[in-house]
């Protein structure tokens, strides 16, 4: 056997030499990626949000996505959907992923760069002669046979030795790989799905031309340490960092600063922080503070007290302020924008020709819809306004003082005291905050966090997982709540499902369908759980402010609404439902409480679990939205695409006119009372208000009892709504 092995080895080497003389050549492609050298990619990660992305004017799809092989340099990114309508600019670097992460809770942007370079690549196209193959083949055969012979010689000795397990057994290697994958996933998740780093800037005052620095409190809310501005912050701790700000222009200023930080894995992120600060002019030397509002004859005036520390008088607006003296300046105000927490005014200050040139000061006034509601003694509405405001932004000290005053008038003294202390923490030098805190301490009030209201029916069994923030809506299938997750304080919406609905045969099927849907106008389903109770988790609606209160669904709106609002909502409904139908599904119970609202009236459709409601409970409170074929199928036929078209038209009719079509009630008796085979019983919008005539055709083609008269698809309906918008633009309609 030993002689045969040696002979075969020699034969293989001879074969190697013989074949190497044949001059035949070929090509083999290497294993390089399709990324052109010098190019990079853009990756957009948005957690549980579905956002349409265009890069350099080309539609790239819905997030999460990655666009590869982009040229190095600047690229324009457009984000549309889920409340976004924004243009950004991002730099692509060679052999790097430009990762744009958007936190679903704070909607802040993080920009990071991840290297994609591996070991140096070989030439992607290498020429190999058959000689090279022969050398490799012959060497392989020779080495293999020689090795086989050597193995037989030492096998007997190894056989007698004690077997020692490998320090890297297959199971331990797998454990290490899985552990690494877990770490990568956690790092990626922390960069996208929750806020690791919370930045809380303090209101600071700087002098014009001096070194401008403000204090920002950096709180590491993640599970690993981070490095920021040269400071290592362990998880769960905070540090104060100093941020340089421009101080060339005097007045109340806003400054957005990009603050980079590095996580434990070495990945760099960039977090934007909005810094409010004041630049005091030095010539003349001025400082100012907001005093309050005065309301007379349905007009509101803001009062600002300005101190002149100069040695000469100044004219501030039309008020002369002598040296080393204070003066009060009045700012008349119009009705506030319903969604802006503050307004600003430009004040001209003239020190006189002998002392300098006129300067323009930007003065920020904490005037908002909450102030107007307070002046009208609508305290509950005002409190709702401030609660919704602070769910999106930490706010300024003056805004917290305003909320505290509302709470105090409502008799909620402890909650008011908490708001006052929150104001003082944001801006220790705010005179109003110091005054109200001193007053509350003199009154002997205790400081505590305010209790969550309107969530008494939130299941106690979920309180370990979520803290309820607000009640959003309620329908036959369950109750919706805005919540904060205990694990990371991210905001989500939880819908607690009625037990009989959760146990129905059709419920699981509808949830499976919902999970598959991804579109900017479809509410994203994050999770479905059945323990400890049945509930769904979705991304949260932002809501829109109407009459001082944040409304989260169409059911919350005070109707009628302006025509342009109807158009915008109608466009969103058509786009979302068109996508749904193209996926091969229908909705069939488009209740107003299941059409959720974001800022700028961007809508998202939910309630796909309601199909189980129809099969288990029939219809009660949402009956007015049903199409004729759902009530009397033997007369009007089966449900179809046109069923959803009818329901969308019913929603738009309600928003336009403030009433339900055909004068329908919540509970139906006999279909014959409402349908006679024609639409003669429908009151067209123009008969309600002449300026609504532009919607008559739309309403006629959606709300006809005869499905054959209705639009054939949502694409047709969308086209007509776009025409209505163009007509209104041409006629300057509102």
Description:
The chain is α+β, with helices and mostly antiparallel strands. It has 18 helices and 34 strands. The strands form ten sheets. It has a five-stranded mixed sheet, with no helix packed on it. Strands 26-27-28-30-29 form a five-stranded antiparallel sheet. A hairpin with a 2-residue loop joins β3 and β4. α10 packs antiparallel against α12 and α15 runs antiparallel to α17 (696-702).
Number of domains: 5
State the end-to-end CA separation: 99 Å
Computed structural class: alpha+beta
The best one-word shape is globular
| Average residue-wise pLDDT | 75
Characterize the main sheet.
5 strands, mixed
Find the CATH topology of the largest domain. Answer: Transferase(Phosphotransferase), domain 1
Rounded to an integer in angstroms, the radius of gyration calculated over CA atoms is 34 Å
How many individual β-strands?
34
Instruction: List segments where confidence is low: pLDDT < 50 over at least 5 consecutive residues.
Output: 15-33, 118-195, 445-453, 666-672
Helix content: 25-40%
Q: Examine the secondary-structure arrangement and name the CATH architecture of the largest domain.
A: Orthogonal Bundle
For the largest beta sheet, what order do the strands appear in spatially?
A: 12-18-17-14-15
CATH class of the largest domain: Mainly Alpha
What is the strand content? 25-35%
CATH H-tier superfamily of the largest domain: Transferase(Phosphotransferase) domain 1
Number of helical elements: 18
Quaternary state reads single chain
